[in-house]
Automatic annotation (TrEMBL):
Any one GO biological process: amino acid transport
CDD domains in the cross-refs: PBP1_ABC_RPA1789-like
Keyword Plastid: no
Protein known as: ABC transporter substrate-binding protein
Record's keyword terms, sorted: Amino-acid transport, Signal, Transport
Ranges of residues in domain Leucine-binding protein: 30-379
UniProt family annotation: Belongs to the leucine-binding protein family.
Pfam families reported for this sequence: Peripla_BP_6
InterPro entries attached to this UniProt entry: BCAA_transport, Leu-bd, Leu_Ile_Val-bd, Peripla_BP_I
PANTHER family, sorted: BLR7848 PROTEIN, LEUCINE-SPECIFIC-BINDING PROTEIN
Signal peptide span: 1-27
Length: 385
């Protein structure tokens, strides 16, 4: 494990054009990494694997000597998916704990509640949430690791276009993630020659969506249906879809890219497609794939340590920590402005989610092509290409 961590740290340095010898020695205190995550509550399927990933790899890093001669210290709070709690905890991390940087924010709501405080304090922040509003427009101190909802919409629409679909139905949740996904899908559809001929929504607490799906099914010309949401809602929609016997192709968003969704949806998920990280099919990739090593190393580390399936959400935390380590090493110190500048100039860092190429105009650094289109086959994930 120590050797693997050293490879990770060395790879981070190499990716930034540095050598270990060029990094100055530091005092033997800690580098304080703050985090607020939704470890409990309705978004725990996001926050739980994210926290486990941070804890696992911070232990690995510290076991191999730390970063810049210092141990990493994780200071974490559970916001339980509550944006107001996230804001309170972010303020505590900034004012009381005086962290050097923050890796966290499981949901868009929690992230955006904290952003004004973080921007005011001038502390580098790597969010693990998906909405494009987090980094569009660019905010000086804010970065993120997941692809945006707009990129997910584009990747789905690309696949629909390739399959010859020109008219689709859209069903989405009214929460922050679903509403944002709905908006960007509507904005992007025309660019792919696709018309949204049915547009339905449901509330996060709804337990049945058969009425909405029936209206979509009965709309003339519908060739495929997309559900854009995360949490329990998409599993309900998927089961209702199967119960109604709808036979046209069905898509979900990246918000359900985990084995837990397959467990919730059961046989009803068979045949659906979604955009996701290659992590879910890591063992099915050719060894020549640029992400093969990092994907399979993370999968092996996580599953052997926790005895549970890896998820793409935990991978966002892996990439966030990796980028933080690279930026710290490039900066050669914990100076916040230098670390921020180093993050903004990361170019070619291969993560679990994709290859990151940050710039002053792009604080995410991924493209729509970093998504792979997966299909559920025989109750498991399979590559479609």
């Amino acid at each position: 494990m120590k050797r693997m961590l050293k490879q990770l740290a060395a790879g981070a340095v190499t990716a930034l054009g540095l050598t270990l010898a060029s990094v100055p020695a530091q005092a033997a205190d800690t580098i304080r990494i703050g985090s607020f995550l939704s470890v409990t509550g309705p978004a725990s399927f996001l926050g739980d694997p994210e926290l486990k990933t941070l804890e696992l790899y911070i232990d690995k890093i510290n076991g191999s000597g730390g970063v810049l001669g210092k141990k990493l210290e994780l200071i974490h709070y559970d916001d339980a998916g509550d944006a107001s709690k996230a804001r309170t905890f972010a303020n505590r991390l900034l004012r009381q704990d005086r962290v050097d940087l923050i890796v966290g924010g499981s949901t868009t709501g929690a992230t955006m509640a904290a952003v004004p405080l973080i921007e005011q304090a001038g502390v580098p922040f790597i969010s693990l949430a998906g909405a494009e509003t987090i980094t569009t427009p660019v905010k000086k101190w804010v970065f993120k690791t997941p692809q945006s909802d707009r990129q997910a919409a584009r990747r789905i629409l690309m696949d629909m276009k390739d399959r010859g679909f020109t008219k689709i139905g859209l069903i989405s949740g009214t929460g922050g993630f679903g509403a944002s996904g709905r908006n960007v899908t509507k904005e992007e559809a025309g660019n792919f020659g696709i018309e949204i001929v049915a547009d339905e929504t449901y509330n996060p607490k709804d337990t049945d969506t058969t009425a909405q799906l029936t209206r979509i099914r009965n709309t003339d010309g519908v060739q495929a249906i997309l559900n854009f949401d995360f949490g329990q809602g998409p599993a309900i929609v998927t089961r209702n879809y199967a119960q109604l016997g709808i036979e046209i192709p069905f898509y979900q968003s990246h918000g359900v890219a985990s084995d837990s969704f397959l467990e919730l949806a059961g046989d009803a998920a068979e045949g659906l497609r979604l955009p996701a990280s290659a992590l879910l099919v890591a063992d099915k990739l050719p060894k020549s794939d640029p992400q093969y090593d990092v994907l399979n190393r993370y999968k092996s580390d996580y599953e052997s340590h926790y005895n549970e399936s890896v998820s793409t959400f935990g991978a966002y935390a892996y990439d966030g920590l990796q980028l933080a380590v690279q930026a710290l090493m490039k900066a050669g110190s914990t100076d916040k402005a230098k670390v921020r500048d180093a993050l903004e100039n990361i170019d070619g860092a291969v993560g679990v989610t994709g290859t990151y190429r940050m710039s002053p105009e792009d604080h995410m650094g991924l493209t729509a092509e970093s998504f792979r289109i997966l299909e559920v086959k025989d109750g498991d994930w399979a590559l479609t290409e």
